[in-house]
Write the structure tokens for this entry.
Amino acid sequence: MLKGSKVGLRARHEDDIPILRTELYDDVVNSARSEGRPWRPITPGSKDSRLVVDDKEQGHVPFSVVELDGGTLIGTATLWGIDNHHRSAHIGLGLLPSARGKGYGTDVVAVLCHYGFVVRGLQRLQIETLSDNAAMLRSAERNGFVREGVLRSSAWVMGEFLDQVLLGLLVQEWKPASKG
Ligand SMILES: CC(C)(COP(=O)(O)OP(=O)(O)OC[C@H]1O[C@@H](n2cnc3c(N)ncnc32)[C@H](O)[C@@H]1OP(=O)(O)O)[C@@H](O)C(=O)NCCC(=O)NCCS
């Protein structure tokens, strides 16, 4: 398990799946805001890639996020789009509603940076988020990510086009906050 100051990132367990499905992915508005595709329900027991991990998929590493203190499941985190030629990847995360606003998101970003830069030897990490997602922007910027551009009207979200902000962090700019 990778450890930050408050959260751990571990493998997906079978028991995580119904919790993530009902508390995260059944939320249409949250899914529409966080994912690059239209919401559709996940059938219980299905092998939907948002929940069931394919360990053979090299470019995509999903984690379950737990509280270090007690091990309670609080969300998901992913290093995706891993490009071993350009040595870059994207990061994504989603916390259960009850876990938001407690500093966990900032810590998850820190742990994903450790995984990307130290464990995987990448040189650039990237985040795309809606321009009104203050908590995600702040979680990224607290870890040194800088705003590199605005993708105007790039996301169709519940009936309207919204802007996305693209943030990047290079390994030489990164100041590790935790040992991971
Ligand atoms: C985005 C998300 C991962 C952030 O994690 P979090 O644990 O809620 O964020 P934190 O508690 O670490 O807060 C980070 C900063 O944002 C601020 N913040 C938190 N919630 C906020 C809100 N609703 N509005 C404005 N600022 C907020 C915090 O005060 C903190 O700022 P500080 O460091 O200056 O004190 C989490 O809220 C989440 O999962 N949201 C739903 C899914 C989502 O949007 N995922 C990202 C898709 S790209």
In short: The beta strands are 2-3, 7-10, 60-67, 73-83, 88-95, 124-130, 146-157, 160-170. The pocket of coenzyme A is lined by residues 30, 33-34, 92-95, 100-106, 129, 133-136, 138-139, 142 (CB under 6 Å). Residues 56 and 62 are 12 Å apart (CA to CA). The two ends are 9 Å apart (CA to CA).
